[in-house]
Amino acid sequence: MSIWTRITDAVAALANGESLSQVFDRLRTPPEKTVAFTIAVIALSAKMAKADGRVTRDEVMAFREVFNISPEDEAGAARVFNLARQDVAGFEDYARRIRAMFREDHGTLCDLMEGLFHIAMADGTYHPGEDAFLLEVAEIFELPEGSFRRLKSRFVPDAEPDPFDVLGVSADMSLDDIRGVWRKLVRDSHPDVMIARGVPEEAVKLSEKRLIAINRAWEEISAREPA
């Protein structure tokens, strides 16, 4: 059974009167936890679309970049998005249920926020409504301020990303300590590690862009070190 078939069945249950709590409670363990992750991205993306009042073709394409959707699954993916967008539950309800599900897994919540930032920036504009939306979701997820700032620095091009922010380190740390953080981030971003956290295989492209940013930041920091 395709992941999109399982996702459609789960979200359709919401439309048929099941509570968000009941649906997510069925998705707490592997392999269904990957379904929960995907529903979370879809549902929050659908809710985020209301933050700037529109859904653009670029945002749809960005979603397709995060999740590899085969032609036969396109209709199912579109149905999931539309069901989530029409659901009367507010995004806060989704975010709280997701936080409860991944309470012990900070990494997966960061993965999810990363996908939302990617979709938010797809049209090249970071709308104030999107910023407020993502900040509130991050607060519900109880993500540290530094984690949110690190993600924002990678995706929002107001200025050239600070390499120290990208790695989540401070400029007064030793190069050896920064190297240790960089190596851990590289390990944590490996597709196999992400899949083990519950991120579906369809979403491992999240790690590709992250690794590019992480390695670029390390190269810039290490190049500043006096010879």
Q: Separation of termini?
A: 57 Å
Secondary structure class reads mainly alpha
What's the structural domain tally? Answer: 1
Radius of gyration: 18 Å
H/I helix tally: 13
Mean pLDDT: 76
How many strands, what sense, and barrel or not for the largest sheet? none
Percent helix, as a range, is 55-70%
State the low-pLDDT regions, or none.
Answer: none
Order of helices and strands: HHHHHHHHHHHHH
Percent in strands: under 5%
Shape: globular
Quantity of strands, as a count? 0
In short:
It is built from 13 helices and no strands. It has helices at 3-15, 20-25, 32-48, 57-66, 74-86, 91-101, 106-120, 128-140, 145-155, 163-167, 175-188, 191-197, 205-224. The termini are far apart.
Attribute tags:
227 residues, mainly alpha, 13 helices, globular
Helix and strand arrangement:
Layout: H1 3-15, H2 20-25, H3 32-48, H4 57-66, H5 74-86, H6 91-101, H7 106-120, H8 128-140, H9 145-155, H10 163-167, H11 175-188, H12 191-197, H13 205-224
Helix pairs in contact: 1-3, 1-5, 3-5, 3-6, 3-7, 4-7, 7-8, 7-9, 11-13
Tell me what the structure shows:
- There is one protein chain.
- The chain contains 13 helices and no strands.
- With 227 residues, the protein is mainly alpha-helical.
- The chain starts with a helix and ends with a helix.
- The model has no long low-confidence stretch (mean pLDDT 76).
